[in-house]
Amino acid sequence: MQSEKRYAFICGVSRSGTTAMADLLRADPQIAMGRERYAFLLSGGHPYGPSLFEKDRFCLDHRPDDSHHHKAQPYYAELHSRFDQCTLIGDKLPNLYEGYHRVLDHFPGCKVIYMLRNVFHVAQSFQGRHDKAMEQNRDPQRPNSPWPEWRDWKRGVEEWNLSLEATLKYAKSHNFHIFSYESLFAQDDLLDDLFDYLELPVVQAVKEAWESSKAAREELEGQRSLRFRSEQMDWIMRHARFDLFQELAPK
Q1: Whole-model pTM?
Q2: Average pLDDT, whole number, for the chain?
Q3: CA–CA distance, 137 with 185 (Å, rounded to integer)
Q4: Tens digits of per-residue pLDDT, 194-219?
Q5: Given a cut of 60, is residue 141 above it in pLDDT?
Q6: Sequence-separated (6 or more) residues with CB below 8 Å from residue 97
């Protein structure tokens, strides 16, 4: 018997931990979570509704206009066999803030998880993807990177601002939950908080995924450093909307 479906979406400016959140939720056998499954459809103004999240369409029917992920990930084939037992289905879409109204109108009562990350690491990660894209696009033996070369560290700050501004318009009036990327795998009580919000129990597979992500994060934090010059830091300090960040940050 097919379970009644509820919907959840993960968002936040790119490079803010949305993939980490999606991978954590994917560990739960009751959750079917895409990773930018329909990124093009949302941003391109195409019809975006529950029919996209039906079993065969979501798991098997991958079309070129759906997303920049041109090849179906193995996750979807595995998901197809247990899809009927899933009670929560959704997608990870960093750019969801550009079209909140479309999702909220077509998925009333859906859960929206917004990942909030500090602007400095977001901007640095944008620059890292920009540099890799430039290197890849110069290599004739490699396919062109889907990351546009114009999305550098300054663009990261600009998108961070836009994301915060758009989210503040909805966060208090709809079923949003803000999670800090910096706190996510550092505070164990947030796992219970997350699944209480999703109205699901924390199963063993999720606990194991949490512990694995926690260990990986601790290792990464030991290696992390900012590589901005003084003038770049000054630009960020003058242009980033820290006032919006403070309004959204979990208290």
Answers
A1: 0.93
A2: 93
A3: 34
A4: 999 999 999 999 999 999 999 988 88
A5: yes
A6: 11, 13, 162, 163, 166, 167
Tokens matching residue 114: 């917004």
The residue count for the chain: 251
Nearest to 133 by CA among 151, 150, 145, 123: 145
Q: What is the 3-state secondary structure (H, E, C) of the chain?
A: CCCCCEEEEEECCCCCCHHHHHHHHHCCCCEEEEECCCHHHHHCCCCCCHHHHCHHHHHCCCCCCCCCCCCCCHHHHHHHCCHHHCCEEEEECHHHHHHHHHHHHHCCCCEEEEEECCHHHHHHHHHHHHHHHHHHHHCCCCCCCCCCCCCCHHHHHHHHHHHHHHHHCCCCCCCEEEEEHHHHCCCCHHHHHHHHHHCCCCCHHHHHHHHHHHHHHHHHHHHCCCCCCHHHHHHHHHHCCHHHHHHHCCC
pLDDT, tens only, 94-104: 999 998 998 99
CA distances from 32 to 95, 152, 176 (A): 19, 32, 19
pLDDT higher than 70, residue 3: no
- 97/144 Cα distance (integer angstroms): 26
- Between the CA of residue 175 and those of 109, 116, 207, what are the distances in Å? 7, 16, 25
Amino acid in the structure at residue 182 = E
Instruction: Look at 42 and 168; give whichever has higher pLDDT.
Output: 168
| Interval 7-23: pLDDT, tens | 999 999 999 999 999 99
